[in-house]
Specification:
The structure holds two protein chains of two kinds.
Chain A (H helix, E strand, L loop, with lengths): L1 H14 L1 H4 L4 E2 L4 E2 L8 E5 L5 E5 L30 E6 L13 H6 L2 H4 L7 E7 L8 E7 L8 E3 L6 E2 L10 E2 H5 L5 E2 L6 E9 L12 E4 L5 E9 L11 E5 L5 E2 L5 E2 L2 E9 L5 E7 L3 E4 L5 E3 L3 E2 L6 E10 L10 E2 L9 E2 L7 E5 L4 E13 L7 E14 L2
Antiparallel strand pairs in A: 1-2, 3-4, 5-6, 6-11, 7-8, 7-10, 7-12, 8-9, 12-13, 14-18, 17-27, 18-27, 19-26, 19-28, 20-21, 20-28, 22-25, 23-27, 24-26
Chain B lengths: L3 H16 L5 E2 L2 E6 L16 E6 L8 E6 L9 E3 L1 E7 L16 E2 L2 E10 L8 E7 L7 E7 L4 E2 L6 E11 L2 E11 L4 E9 L4 E5 L16 E11 L3 E7 L9 E4 L5 E4 L5 E3 L7 E6 L9 E2 L10 E3 L9 E7 L2 E14 L14 E6 L2
Parallel strand pairs in B: 1-13, 7-10
Antiparallel strand pairs in B: 2-3, 3-10, 4-9, 4-12, 5-11, 6-8, 6-10, 8-9, 12-13, 15-16, 16-25, 17-24, 17-26, 18-19, 20-23, 21-25, 22-24
Classes of the chains: A mainly beta, B mainly beta.
Chain lengths: 397, 365
């Protein structure tokens, strides 16, 4: 029993050393917490970034000393302590509105979705500081955690705005409200689909770092991507069709050996949306490298070419691109080979080729591709010329 | 002391690990370029699936690490269709690269020894996982590429269309970066283009003679005739013949004496010439109907049904007149007889007269 008592006592001392010798001296009006019995004081410089003023024998500056009307300052520097800041907004996936007020207009009116893309931000966030009347040169540091600061306690780096460990946190991670809120995304490098907690503390001169303010939470998006194919004629901007997806050069669109290029009646319509920061790429790959006839063994070979001048060929050409216009998200462009006019086509080869690209998130992208073919005079008549094209959308997170 | 010191050590050690528990960083950039996005591919034959992974860590990951691709827990055995080794190789670029950004592969995935990869299936509490081993040191800010395809292990796709969350983790000795994101599977990722190619339509035209002698015309005398045949076949939707003359080179088509004293037996301004009429002079031609049972039609002014009446022609291409046409293919060659007729006026000087008549043949396509 004595041994167990010693173990318990030792653990208790190690975990809660500050409470062991404290004694609360309650009264009706005042409460003194943390009074100790030893006197003396030392001033100790711990590093280039911090100074610690250690005093014992005085009344603790524990916040529990405060009342509604009065605050007991336990040392001269307490007179300069800034107000504890609060988080006025911390957002990742807001849509249609925002509590953030100092960011871009698009954020204020459309929420984080308007500046991060569909479903919001998956790896970054924005917070703003309620300074509670502090002077403008007050500095603030931001704590971040995924478990409400139980075991995961990190800070936001003042340069990269990525979370950093306590070991790399230093004075350069204290910024003014303006400096924190100038970047649109002042927290970056977050994990997807994760709830984050942040707290803010203030500093206004040596030995004036406040306790942390109340926490705020936000959950990052899990990422978002959408891709769809449809087959319809050139008027099919809003058409939605089901597979199998086929386009035929038959009837009035039958190919005639040695004739001028023919554009198929139907188009390949593509839907693409994502909130991936690197946008997306849409890739095409063919099975045969052209329109191949098993009957004749001949192939109208696909190539990037102007079919007006080429004797023979097959390919695709971008005809239509549209997307929702948000200044903070991206646009879609056809790559050079596929953005020609007339009968200039891009290759559908057996190796993958990029047809469309966005460099940032895209809302409601809609694209259409023409299919154009020109059989040369050497092509023998047959009804089974065919190519299978595979389309792939790659979001870049 | 026997109790206090070890206990104190235990408590401090525990506190240390609490404070310094590892926090996985997020990958700076990542994409998976799948060769197929069709849901439910079993990975065999034409349904094979390949991955190109581009990965940029935010933290430098030491050598001898691994990269894992993990799939949702409720999709076990659909991504890793067969357990086993996969084919793996570093790649220095891909079609999905975004030039100039973090999503632009800088170099092939480094190795520590020989890269290997394997596909394992999930079960209770585990997920389908592709693990790449023997990965060399990954430098933060550098984007590496690696391609994975089926070998003993077989990669497929889940059978449900829509978004699927995957998690990529680079790990070595507890230093790790990871990121979860979505990929999208379609019910069908293929567009099939089919075509009928027909032979180029042809039209074959021929003229039996290139020189026709009308003999001697006597001033004020009877009209003379001469002729040849034209032959036509076509695989197009029809054919036509048109004709124009040369004449004196300035006023009209017709038989022209170019030597002194020059003279033109003009084809004339009227549509036809009835050379049986003693007061009518000039130059014209007729054609016979190639086949009364098919749609070939001789232009009304040039029919040969009225003896001695000939259609007139004009000079130059701009004056060409359609003389024979047919709507519809003509599999075998059919002929039409062309008859030229001319009559000289009493004032026509003696000499040699000539007209060059140009015949134009074409198809309707």
């Amino acid at each position: 029993m004595p041994k167990l008592l010693k173990i318990f006592l030792t653990i208790y001392i190690c975990i809660l050393p500050t409470t062991l010798f404290a004694a609360e001296l309650d009264s009706t009006n005042y409460k003194i917490v943390g009074a100790t019995t030893k006197g003396g004081a030392i001033l100790e410089t711990a590093s280039g970034d911090y100074s610690a003023l250690l005093e014992v024998g005085r009344i603790s500056n524990n916040p529990r000393n405060y009342s509604t009307s009065y605050k007991m300052l336990t040392s001269p520097e307490q007179a300069f302590l800034p107000a504890v800041p609060e988080v006025s907004c911390f957002e990742t996936t807001t849509s249609g509105s925002s509590n953030c007020t100092t960011g871009p207009t698009e954020l204020s009116t459309g929420g984080m979705v308007a500046i991060c893309g569909p479903s919001g931000c998956y790896d970054k966030a924005r917070f703003e500081i309620d300074i509670n009347g502090n002077p403008t040169d007050t500095l603030y540091a931001v704590m971040i955690s995924t478990d409400n600061f139980s075991s995961d306690i990190r800070y936001i780096d003042g340069s990269s705005f990525w979370p950093e460990s306590l070991s790399t946190h230093n004075l350069s991670d204290f910024l003014t409200k303006t400096d924190w809120e100038t970047p649109d995304f002042n927290i970056q490098g977050l994990q997807t689909a994760t709830t984050y907690y942040i707290k803010i503390l203030a500093l206004h001169g040596d030995f004036t770092q406040t306790q942390e303010g109340p926490f705020a939470t936000a959950t990052t998006s899990a990422g978002s991507v959408f891709f769809d194919l449809d087959i319809e004629d050139e008027t099919g901007i809003t058409a939605e069709t089901s597979s199998p997806y086929t386009i035929s050069f038959t009837g009035a669109y039958e190919l005639i050996g040695g004739s001028a290029p023919t554009t198929a009646q139907d188009r390949i319509w593509i839907d693409g949306s994502t909130n991936s920061e690197g946008g997306f790429a849409i890739i095409v790959r063919g099975v045969n490298g052209g329109l191949r006839s098993n009957t004749t063994g001949q192939t109208i070979v696909s190539a990037t070419a102007d079919l007006n001048t080429a004797s023979d060929g097959f390919g695709i050409q971008s005809e239509y691109i549209d997307y929702d216009t948000y200044p903070y998200v991206g646009s879609i462009t056809a790559t050079t080979d596929y953005s020609g006019t007339g009968n200039y086509v891009g290759i559908v080869g057996t190796t993958a080729t990029k047809v469309y690209e966005s460099e940032s998130p895209v809302f409601n992208g809609r694209m259409a591709l023409k299919v154009i073919a020109k059989p040369g005079m050497d092509k023998t008549a047959a009804t089974d010329y065919q190519e299978t094209m595979y389309f792939v959308l790659i979001p870049r997170f | 002391m026997k109790i206090v010191v070890p206990t104190l050590f235990l408590v401090l050690s525990t506190a240390f690990f609490i404070v310094f528990s590892a926090q996985a960083g997020t990958l700076a950039a990542v994409y998976i370029f799948m060769s197929r996005l069709k849901a439910g591919l079993d990975g065999s034959g034409a349904n094979a699936v390949q991955f190109i992974l581009a990965i940029d860590t935010a933290t430098t990951i030491p050598t001898a690490g691994t990269i894992t691709i993990e799939f949702p827990d409720d999709e076990d055995t659909s991504w890793c269709r067969t357990i086993g080794a996969l084919t793996v190789a570093g790649v220095a670029g891909s079609a999905a690269d975004l030039a100039g950004g973090n999503w632009d592969i800088d170099s092939a995935l480094p190795t520590s020894g020989t890269l290997s990869a394997a596909c394992t299936q999930g079960g209770a509490g585990t997920v389908d996982t592709i693990t790449i081993s023997n990965v060399g040191a990954l430098t933060a800010g550098t984007t590496y590429g690696v391609q994975i395809s089926s070998a003993t292990g077989v990669i497929g796709t889940n059978g449900t269309t829509g978004e699927h969350e995957v998690t990529i983790t680079a790990n070595s000795g507890g230093t790790m970066d990871s990121k979860s994101f979505k990929i999208y599977l379609l019910g069908d990722d293929a567009v099939v283009i089919s075509a009928t190619v027909s032979d180029m339509p042809t039209v074959v035209c021929s003229i039996s003679l290139n020189a026709v002698n009308l003999g001697t015309l006597y001033p004020g005398g009877a009209y003379a005739t001469g002729g040849h045949t034209i032959s036509t076949s076509t695989t197009s939707n029809g054919y036509y013949w048109a004709v124009y003359g040369t004449g004196d080179g300035s006023t009209d088509a017709g038989l022209y004496k170019s030597t002194v004293t020059t003279h033109l037996i003009a084809s004339g301004a009227t549509a036809t010439l009835d050379l049986t009429n003693a007061t009518v002079y000039g130059f014209g031609l007729t054609l016979s109907d190639p086949d009364s049972t098919d749609p070939a039609t001789v232009a009304p002014n040039f029919v040969n049904t009225t003896t001695g009446t000939f259609g007139t022609i004009d000079r130059l291409y701009s004056g060409a007149k359609l003389v024979l046409s047919q709507s519809g293919t003509q599999g075998s060659a059919e002929n039409s007889t062309v008859t030229y007729g001319a009559r000289a006026s009493s004032s026509a000087p003696a000499g040699s007269y000539q007209e060059t008549v140009y015949w134009i043949c074409g198809g309707y396509y």
